[in-house]
Amino acid sequence: MNISHLTVDQDSDMSEYIPFSQGLYIGGKWRPSSDGRVIEVVDPSTEAVIAAIPDATLAAAAVEAAAQAAAGWRETPPRKRSEILRRCFELMTERAETLAALISLENGKALRDARGEVAYAAEFFRWNAEEAVRISGEFGLAPSGANRIVVDFQPIGICVLITPWNFPAMATRKIAPALAAGCTVILKPASETPLTAYALAALYEEAGVPPGVVNVITTSNPGPVTAAMLADARVRKLSFTGSTGIGRLLLAEAAKHVISCSMELGGNAPFIVLDDADLEAALDGAMIAKMRNAGEACTAANRLYVQAGIHDAFAEGLRKRMAALAIGPGTDSETECGPMITRKAVDKIDRLVQDAVARGAKVLCGGAVAEGRGFFYPPTVLSDVPADAAMAHEEIFGPVAPISRFEDEAEVIARANDTEYGLAAYIYTRDLAKGMRMASKIESGMIALNRGLMSDPAAPFGGVKQSGLGREGGQKHGIAEFMEAKYIAVTI
Ligand code: NAP
Prior knowledge:
This protein is α/β, with parallel strands linked by helices. The protein folds into two domains: about 15-265 and about 470-490, Aldehyde Dehydrogenase, Chain A, domain 1 (3-Layer(aba) Sandwich), CATH 3.40.605; about 270-455, 3-Layer(aba) Sandwich (Aldehyde Dehydrogenase, Chain A, domain 2). Helices cover about 35% and strands about 20% of the residues. The chain is built from 14 helices and 20 strands. The chain has helices at about 60-75, 80-95, 95-105, 110-130, 170-180, 195-205, 220-230, 245-255, 280-290, 310-325, 345-360, 410-415, 430-440, 475-480, and strands at about 25, 30, 40, 50-55, 140, 150-155, 160, 185-190, 215, 235-240, 260-265, 270-275, 300-305, 360-365, 380-385, 400-405, 425-430, 445-450, 470, 485-490. Strands 14-15-16-13-12-17-18 form a seven-stranded mixed β-sheet, sandwiched between helices. Helix 2 packs antiparallel against helix 4 (about 110-130), helix 2 (about 80-95) packs antiparallel against helix 5 and helix 2 crosses helix 6 (about 195-205). The structure holds NADP nicotinamide-adenine-dinucleotide phosphate. NADP nicotinamide-adenine-dinucleotide phosphate binds near residues 165, 226, 265 and 298.
């Protein structure tokens, strides 16, 4: 698939640049679905159908291709695997503009967010190219003195990877460490945003990833297709990113076959601003934490708790910044807030806003569905959002910032922890000791202290409670999810 002609040009009709998928990507070949059925991909800015991709009914061929390639890839020297991964990083970096345009087109996110996503996604190849040659084992004497303990870390086996639509390139967070560890994979991207996954599959091939090492399938029937893959005894790993509800279903399915699972699930991040915070820094951070991807992020600030002394200045500052954002198609370089992914997503956001208002929240800006074509929702700030509002407990996944006032530290920690989720949290304070104390008490896999962004391939990304199991990225953490420890007892 050649996507090198895809360029960002505000005056052109983007539809003429769509790279139509040539098929499911299995064993290094592009194949149609068995019954010729397709899934239509919609541009969320215009609601126009922009591509049709194959709709797989079975994934047996993909598992077979991953199995055929497994021994060769596992035995490929780590240095060689590392060089191929490094080449994936270089090609993604060279084609960053093209990939960003494709992401904007199918997902709707603003180009500046899409550029950030490509850079972040590419970094997982660079990081894991470096990890691939640093996999080491353990050697020691048993406490009894009877034998030596040798621990070898081996690739876990064939991996099924399932990813959501909000970061179409984020599958690299799974593919890069899996390949670094020596595993072969089958990726099932979200039906709304499959084009980036297929474009990247072609790029991996160009970088030297052998046929069958990465396979990509799309399906409108993910439950049965995934269940069939997990039932194949050769599949040993499921790595899923998506909603907590689907994560629970998949954990149950994987349990039937005792398959190792990594789960990156939903979030409900608190964003806490203390009286002593630097107001401008807190506002800058809130705009990033809330508005990256127009709020369609698992780490998005979902509940903004602001201490009484700084509350009014913060609320007014955020209102001004949110109301000034440019709304439009993501592919327009001026856009700061693109459309939501679907009409259903807009309806959910509106339901949550209307519920909060009915319970006493005040609308400072936005607050109503935009007229016209495209799945747009305006940047919205609410104040006085009560603890029983539905949005205090559900992911908003949109450009809505609900502010609540608080008085003291103990109160805000209790409110921050009053959720089944525990993915990300943000704290703004000039008192580092206080910030660290609060960070240790907040039930969350990740905390950003005086920052609006925490994601980094070099740091372990993941949640606690219902936000997931396992970590992606980080020193050893991400790659460890794709390896098994083998213990050998040796008498010498
Ligand atoms: P989703 O509905 O759970 O879908 C995620 C993926 O699972 C898609 O590829 C989807 O395929 C697939 N899927 C749906 N039903 C399935 C089933 N029964 N069996 C197997 N696969 C199935 O989530 P989403 O709406 O796309 O994404 C948003 C969610 O992802 C939010 O909750 C967000 O917080 C979470 N998320 C978490 C992280 C993290 O790192 N923790 C990062 C990003 C997003 P189809 O598209 O074909 O339905």
